[in-house]
Structure formats: structure tokens, C-alpha cells
Design a protein that fits this description.
Layout: H1 2-41, H2 47-67
């Protein structure tokens, strides 16, 4: 019985760490999305570049949201 309690505790800690990593990655993607918006506003990239990269970043955010609980 004690072993299963330790296993459950370890699984909760692993889950917490995974969720934190997903949160950190989502924050990084959001930061890159803001940078992308700044780049288009400053005419550093063209509309095609913006749209292609924005689609990739938004897809990644959707994936991360599904993985997080």
C-alpha cells in the first residue's frame, strides 16, 4: 500500500512539472506572437511571412491548450 502511495505522489509531481513546462512553452509562443505583430507593424516582414508564421504559432497555442488541463 505504501508503494502505491509513493507512486501516486511521484505521478502527481511529474504531472505538475509537465503542466509547468507546457505553461512556460505557451508563454514563449505568446511572446513570439507579440514579436511577430511588432515586426509586421514596423514593416520588418511582409504580409505573407506574417501570415505563415502566425498560423504556425496559433496552431501551437491550440495544441498546448489541448495538452494543458
Amino acid at each position: 500500500m505504501l508503494g502505491s502511495g509513493l507512486l501516486m505522489s511521484a505521478m502527481r509531481e511529474i504531472d505538475k512539472a509537465v503542466q509547468k513546462e507546457l505553461e512556460n512553452e505557451q508563454e514563449g509562443v505568446m511572446r513570439r506572437l507579440r514579436q511577430l505583430h511588432n515586426a509586421i507593424e514596423k514593416n520588418e516582414i511582409d504580409e505573407d511571412q506574417f501570415e505563415a508564421r502566425e498560423t504556425q504559432l496559433l496552431d501551437r497555442i491550440d495544441t498546448l491548450k489541448r495538452l494543458r488541463r
